[in-house]
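Homework-ish question, so no full write-ups if that breaks the rules, but can someone show me the predicted structure for this set?
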Amino acid sequence: MHESLTQADWRRWLDDHAPKLLLFARQKARSEADAQDLVQEALVEALKRQSDGEPPPLALVFATIQRRAIDLARRETRRADREMAAQGSGTDCWFDTSVEDHELQKLIQTAMSQLPEMYREVITLKMWGGLTFAEIATALSIPPNTAASRYRYGLLELRKRTREVLA
Amino acid sequence: MNDPNLDLEQFENQLRRLTPARPPEALLGRLQEAPNLAPTKPEAATKRHAPTLSLAWWHRLGWLIPTAAGATAVLMLAVGITIGRRVADSRSTAAAGHTSGSKAVAAAENIEFDQHVVASFDAVAQLPDGQPVRFRCREWSDGVVLTDPKSGLVIERKTPRLEIVPVSFDTY
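A: Not a homework solution, just the prediction itself:
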């Protein structure tokens, strides 16, 4: 265990950030198993880079997930296709089902699944990852203005797809 | 007509009401062990400090580079001068040796010995008991002539030599 990072501290950090990381990994991976592996590998790699014994910066973990997802997609496209076909899509809930808006979360998850990835990843990082456009730009290796425009276009597209249901 | 910006802002607020789902407990258990899979802080610190220490060491010895270059240049200059002198000496020695060798060869091939009788006479002496003794005397000139046609060198040396032969003195 890293010095000055206790089990309790780490558990609290995971409670705060693991849901965001997994949500982002689910946008990038083609199966739930791959998404969970991505989160774990990215956290281990980010912790290795930390020399001060503190939890890794969230933007760094997101960037690591992004990079590892690209590597994974190149490496295991066939296997991911088979797993996705076998388990089906949309079986895992992306959002907390304890909230009142159960229908809303199902609707958004479906609409998000149909969005182009370049919009989906930016919306996820901004809306639920809590990153700034500058941090998103670093994580995704794109200019900040591009991140901002993708966020706006993605929201518009998402709004258009849900307009019939949401008033 | 609705304001698109206002509509988008309201939609954004709706989205914010959603929170990412909590990961499965199995995954949380794996993530809880993530720090144990990463190196501890001292190891990571050592790895990061290694290049820094190396760089500092290099900076401290930076003065050594021009000094070593200068010393090498001076050393090479001294060695070059020494070698040059030795080569010049060996060349002059070889030239001298070649010259003397030529003379020796010339001497060995062009040496003439000559002996001339300069004078010949008899001398009479008397022994202590009164008995006369006759000596036949000859003066010789022993000459040595060395010539080298290539260089036009001619060395001639003549040494006088006295030959005295006692003969019986005949009394009549």
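Now go work out the reasoning yourself. Hint: The mean pLDDT of chain A is 84.
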